[in-house]
Every structure is written in C-alpha cells, then in structure tokens.
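We modelled the chain as a single entity of 139 amino acids. Its sequence is:
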Amino acid sequence: MTIELIRVVLDFGLVILIWLVQLVIYPSFKFYDSINLFKFHKTYKTRVAIVVMPLMVGQLFIYSYLLIVQPTLFNILGFCTVMLLWGVTFFQFVPLHGKISNEMISEKILNQLINRNWLRTFLWSALFTYSFYEFLLKF
C-alpha cells in the first residue's frame, strides 16, 4: 500500500466521520434532556475518541511525512489544513464538550457544536476531495 493510498483512506475515514457527526450525532444531542445527555456524553466521548484519535494522528503523521519528503503545494496545503483542523478541534470543540461533561448543558452550547462544526465538515470534505483528486492523478 502506498503512502498516498494510506493518506486517502485516512482522509476518507475522517470525512465520513465528520458528516456523521454533523448530520446525525450533534443534532441528536438536542433530543436528550440534560441529565441523559450528560450520562450519554460520558460514554460517547470515550468511544468516539477510540475512532477519531487514530485517524487524526495518522492523518497528521502522513501529512507531516509528505511535507518533509515531498514539499509540494498540495502537501503544504494539506499539512496546513490538518493543523487548522487540529487547532479548531482542540481550541473550540474540546472546551464545548468539556462544558457538557461538566453538566453545563444549554441550547446555546448544542447550537455552537452544530454551527461551528460546519467549518470542520467543509475542511475535511475539501481535504478529502483534493486528496482523492491528487491520488487519481498519479495513475
């Protein structure tokens, strides 16, 4: 398996995951009352991290490696996009999930999760689309 194929697979995994989060998971939070969302969220955070973290770390590793060995425009933009996604995730979404974990649940926080997540949804979708296009150009 080539490094480019691994990159596309990781990008694809994250784009599928982010669309599930955007269209199914985050909107479903609104159907829970505060007590049940707090209980569910404890399990959700742990289980989703088992899926998300290997994909994100793998993606970061691949784009870092490609940036070093092949500093093309695509690899530079890809690495910058991945770094932006990490920043948005850890500086915006981790604190929002932290509020839910601390039982600070409100309609405002749930709306922020949904509305702000459109940025990550767009970025991961664009990254996958461009990544897949670059992959196809090699054939």
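As a brief sanity check on the tokenised model: Residues 3-137 form one domain. The chain has four helices and no strands.
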